[in-house]
Amino acid sequence: MWSFLQTCRALLAPLFIPNEQTSLLKKYGPWALITGSTDGIGKAYAFELAKRGINIVLVSRNEERLKNTAKEIESEYFVKTKIVVADFSQGFKAVELVKKAVGLLPINILVNNVGKQYEYPMYLSEVPEKELLDIININVGAVTMMCRAFIDDMKKRGRGAIVNVSSGSELQPLPLMTVYAATKAYIKSFTAALRYEYGSTGLTVQHLAPMFVNTKMNAFSARLRTSTFFVPDAREYAAYAVATLGKVDESSGYWTHGIQTFFTKFPPSWIRMYIGAHLNLSFRRDYFKQKNSTKNNGTIKGEDRIKSI
């Protein structure tokens, strides 16, 4: 019953809690920093915040994409932007670079969106060692250290929001994406504990766990590159996700994903793991089918696997 009530609140709060009570600019302040912000959910989230009059610090590893995204935002919403080139696979070095580039700029909303996914569903021994380390450094290290880098300043100001973007893969162990799913389970646990530590200081610490979104990160299956009722595009997802900020602490970020999450939790973990493994095997077949049938685009580029979801 409690799970049902939580799900209902997460689904309905963005629709029925008046926006004027949670004006993000008024509630948190004029600057937001978003990692993985040049594509997918990260880029769409940046646009949604800019639409609300918030200035944006864009962080990604591709300078050209950063400049293009900054121009798009400034021309459409007339807010200020700042770009920071950082590769979070470099660990703490990247976090230090971001902190130095931001300087005294007050970051009122921190969106930890950057993440790395497998190229396609793989068994552990198939995943290159460097890729495994990158997944851990980006998905675990970046979230942890970026929170630490900015949370004290938010605490001193007595206001601020941290949004940690996880994944529905956190809901169970997930064969063929074993390490990726494990890093997302870390984000869920870390964010809940962080909220307990700092919730009484006036900070919002939100956990987002989307299901599948139509982004380049899911390019291993054509089925996930077509927007449907349960697979929204990034703009649809971000519009709803931003509307949840300041209203609910935990959310899938999209209403149909909330329904999926609710029903996913019904079976025991071992059944969810079995279903997830079966689904990943089908996506693995999709990948090899695409690879064999497409001469020029047989391999998903690494740049596309650095999440802007």
TrEMBL record:
The answer to whether keyword Zinc applies is no
Q: Which UniProt keywords apply?
A: Mitochondrion, NADP, Oxidoreductase
- Where is it mainly found? mitochondrion
Give the matching Gene3D superfamilies. NAD(P)-binding Rossmann-like Domain
Q: Name one GO cellular component term.
A: mitochondrion
Compartments it resides in: Mitochondrion
Q: Which Pfam families match?
A: adh_short (PF00106)
Q: Which Gene Ontology terms cover its molecular function?
A: oxidoreductase activity
Q: InterPro entries this protein is in?
A: 17-beta-HSD3-like, NAD(P)-bd_dom_sf, Sc_DH/Rdtase_CS, SDR_fam
As for family, the record states:
Belongs to the short-chain dehydrogenases/reductases (SDR) family. 17-beta-HSD 3 subfamily.
User: What name appears for this protein in its UniProt entry?
Assistant: Inactive hydroxysteroid dehydrogenase-like protein 1
